[in-house]
Design a protein that fits this description.
The chain is mainly β. Helices cover about 10% and strands about 40% of the residues.
């Protein structure tokens, strides 16, 4: 059985018995590094190499590992070519990986990038041609595209990596089994510092943390990005779409959209599951009124639970044309959605066909804030959502039907007049399609009625007799009554 072979960089560690050292000369090390890797793949000794500079692509052969020092920044690999070339060209990547290869503990660095400026386009830093590969424990301070996995493969692992500013952190296509992205975190400050308005504006309009195209399943755990256009973008390529995506213990700060999908044609993604998400949505440069923390459209099933949102200029969760929806245990911090005051909701469903919204909460003192908006949606159970708002906690709009809204924090404004909607606390407000306002009665037209317990009884006439009348008196009274009746009838 062929043994795994490892290339060790920068410092000596406890090596396998078959490991030796490869000495590098100063300057361009491209050919030397490639020879070391090729020799390792043939079964020769494993090599130990110092930080190096490359001026052309280097290929990691099958079942071979390029392993750095494991220090704080790893072994620095200076990439000194490709400035201004297309980021779509995988064959011009700095490091090209083949089936079963591993890259561990390196720091690719681009001296052609300028601190504080918009990134210049380069080919990918690491590109996977095909097969199952692993990238771990690396730092990408200024890569345009850090990891490009666009080749037929079954299982790809990207874990425990740090990123600075980027056009793409990770780009995936043609996964025919399960890709696993764990503990990938980005913040431009690790390379660019904190005062970079030009760079931040560019990132907010161009950068994506994870772009997922055709794949069967994608597991994302402990992902974090800052200040980008899309934290996680479920996209499509000529090969297909993202079918199943699970996001756990992740978040996106100051991102235009934390999680985004809007595939309008062809197949629909099957399932998106989000748990323990933490996110904000605003522009760190100019407070532009756009963006939603989670925006998902045209998806068969959406499940979001146990998450927290704050700093939302608009809405927290926007779902459009989703077949089945489940939203459970989501918190929106007080006064931290609808910051732009444009009638935004914490949760907004449009044209969704069935689902439940249970146990979500938030509070807002803004006049235009709404907890939940249901628009053109059907068969949705909205139960036990204690939203505290000045206006309606829940709005039902645009021919929604089969809505059950019970035990929620505030009143429910139903503007549909649909008899299938069941509401326990309606807002008594003017229907949207009625032009004439409901008149308010004036004080002087009101009729005040004394409470029943205080009504004074009307006295009835009483005759008190000390003894019964004699026969003569009774006869006289009867005669007088008969005469009076005769005179009245005549």
């Amino acid at each position: 059985m062929k043994k795994w072979l490892i290339v060790i960089a920068a410092v000596c560690v406890a090596l396998p018995l078959w490991a030796t050292e490869c000495l590098l000369i100063s300057g361009d090390n491209t050919d030397q590094v490639q020879k070391c890797l090729d020799d390792a793949a043939k079964g020769d000794h494993v090599v130990n190499i110092a930080p190096f500079l490359i001026s052309a692509p280097v290929t990691i052969p099958e079942r071979t590992a390029l392993r750095g020092s494991g220090a704080s920044w790893g072994t620095v690999v200076t990439v000194n070519f490709g400035r201004g070339e297309s980021s779509e060209n995988k064959l011009r990547a700095g490091l090209i990986m083949k089936n079963g290869s591993t890259i561990d503990g390196i720091t690719p660095f681009y001296p052609g990038q300028l601190v504080g400026k918009a990134l210049v386009e380069y080919p990918p830093t690491i590109a996977v041609i095909s097969g199952d590969t692993t990238v771990e424990n690396c730092t990408f301070p200024n890569s345009y595209v850090a990891v490009d996995v666009r080749g037929a493969h079954g299982r790809f692992f990207v874990r425990n990596n740090r990123y600075g500013p980027h056009f793409r952190m990770i780009r995936i296509d043609e996964c025919y089994d399960v890709d696993d992205l764990s503990n990938n975190r980005s913040n431009p400050a690790i390379w660019a510092g904190n005062d970079n308005s030009e760079l931040y504006a560019w990132m907010h309009n161009n950068s994506v943390g994870i772009e997922a195209n055709r794949l069967d399943w994608l597991w994302i755990d402990r992902f974090f990005d800052w200040g980008v256009k899309y934290g996680i973008w479920l996209n499509q390529s000529v090969n297909g779409i993202s079918h199943g995506v699970q996001v756990v213990q992740s978040g996106c700060d100051a991102c235009r959209y934390g999680i985004y999908s809007n595939i309008e044609s062809g197949d629909r993604p099957w399932l998106v599951t989000v748990s323990n998400w933490s996110g904000t949505s605003f522009n760190p440069v100019d407070d532009k009124d756009d963006g939603v923390s989670i925006y998902l459209a045209h998806i068969e099933g959406v499940n979001i639970s146990n998450s927290n949102f704050w700093g939302l200029r608009n809405e927290g969760i926007y779902l459009n044309d989703c077949s089945t929806v489940s939203l459970l245990g989501i918190n929106f911090l007080t006064d931290d959605w609808n910051i732009a005051e444009n009638n935004s909701a914490a949760i907004h469903l449009v044209n969704c066909r069935r689902g439940s919204i249970v146990g979500n909460s938030g509070a807002s003192s803004r006049d235009s804030s709404v907890g939940i908006i249901l628009e053109g949606s059907h068969n949705i159970k909205v139960i036990a959502n204690p939203f505290e708002t000045k206006g309606p906690a829940i709005k039902i709009l645009s021919s929604s039907s089969g809505i059950t809204a019970l035990a929620n924090g505030g009143c429910v404004q139903d503007l549909t007049n649909d008899p299938t909607n069941k509401i326990d606390t309606p807002c008594y407000m003017q229907p949207q399609n009625t032009a004439t306002p409901i008149p308010t009665p004036k004080i002087d037209t009101l009729r005040y009625v004394q409470p029943q317990s205080m009504v004074t009884p009307i006295p009835m006439p009483m005759t008190i007799r000390t003894k019964p009348p004699d026969k003569g008196q009774e006869s006289h009274l009867l005669t007088s009554i008969l005469r009076a009746l005769s005179a009245k009838t005549s």
